[in-house]
Structures are given as C-alpha cells and as structure tokens.
Amino acid sequence: MDKASTSRTNKSGDTGVCDHPPATPTGPGDSDSGTPGHQFEQPKEASDKQGGLGSQDDPDPREDSSPAAKRRKRNTKAKKNKKRKVDEVEVQKMKLLVSSLSEEQLNRYEMYGRSAFRREAVKRVIQRASGTTVSQKVVIAMSGLAKVFVGEVVEEALDVCQRWRETPPLQPKHLREAVRRLSSKGQIPVTKPKKVSFF
C-alpha cells in the first residue's frame, strides 16, 4: 500500500490525484520542495470542507462565486439602479408639469386621478357583451382603458367647446361632436361592421 501511494507522488511530494480545486499562486517564494517558485495556498472553500468547518445547511459557496451567478447579480443591481434613476427622472418631470399647471388644470388633473369606473359595473358589461366570465385582471385592464377613452373624449369635447367660443361645462352637443371627430380620425373603433357588396 505504501508503494502504491509513493508511486503516485511526484518530485515535489504532491500526489497526482486531487479531490479539491487546484491551488492558487500567491506570489514568489519557496515551495515545500525547496526550489524557488510560487507558494501555493489552498482556496478557503476547499480548506473549510477538508477541515470540517462548513455545515451542511450552508449553501455551496462555489455556486455563489460562479461567473454566471455574479453576472446575474450584477445585472439585477444594474436594473434596480436604472429603474431608480428612471423613477427619479419621472418624478422630477411630473413635479415640473404639475407646477406649470393653472388652478383649473390642476383641479381637473386631480379629479382625473381620483376618478375610476366601478369594477363590478365594468365586469357586468364585459360579461354581458362576451357571454363568458372574466378574471379580475381583465376587469382592471378594461376599466383603465375605459378611463383613458373617456379622457380623450372629454379632452376633444373641451377643444370643441373652445372652438365654438362657448364656456364649460360641457354639454351633450360638445360630446357628440367630439365623438364624431374622433371617429373621423379613426380613433374610435367601428361598432357596426360596414356592409360590403361584391356586385
């Protein structure tokens, strides 16, 4: 048995078989064999495992130090930093916009932010139109789209009111004209399909 173990040993006293990662050079100096060269030091991960210092509950440190894990961690940090910067820029833009609004515009902006369609009513309309049950996410999305649509109609109606040299509040004639203009621009979907004759 001693002959087998000594036959695997090279001149420096190291065996050819290694059950841990290769050692890393730390700098010039003498090795164990007395010849000048680099001193080699065991990586901490391997020495901890050999000495029994690591526990089984601890995650494998080599997984965390892999290049892919480092890259993922770096990308996540970069995305978070970028998102923070974008959010800060958006907040500054909104502050500038709100500070430049007149009193009437600010009141209208606040009312628009507070207004919302009741989700139960939106769900009822969707289910009546489609004939199927819909999830809560669909209801939220449709109520948001409806709010944007109503905002566009009201904005166009205010433009109509101003062009006709009338003062708010809006009247049904302003809303009808706004819907007519938006549909002529193609911003309102067609509710009735056009009949196409092939003759």
Automatic annotation (TrEMBL):
Polar residues: bias regions: 1-13
Protein name as annotated: Transcription initiation factor TFIID subunit 11
Compositionally biased region (Basic residues): 69-84
Pfam name, any one: TAFII28
Domain of life: Eukaryota
Localization: Nucleus
One GO CC term on file: transcription factor TFIID complex
Gene Ontology BP annotations: RNA polymerase II preinitiation complex assembly
Keyword hit for Amino-acid biosynthesis: no
InterPro entries the record matches: Histone-fold, TAF11-like, TAFII28_dom
Transcription among keywords: yes
Keywords assigned by UniProt, alphabetized: Initiation factor, Nucleus, Protein biosynthesis, Transcription, Transcription regulation
Record-linked PANTHER family: TRANSCRIPTION INITIATION FACTOR TFIID SUBUNIT 11, TRANSCRIPTION INITIATION FACTOR TFIID SUBUNIT 11-RELATED
GO terms for MF: protein heterodimerization activity; RNA polymerase II general transcription initiation factor activity; translation initiation factor activity
Region (Disordered): 1-88
Homology family: Belongs to the TAF11 family.
Signal sequence range: none
Positions of the TAFII28-like protein domain: 96-181
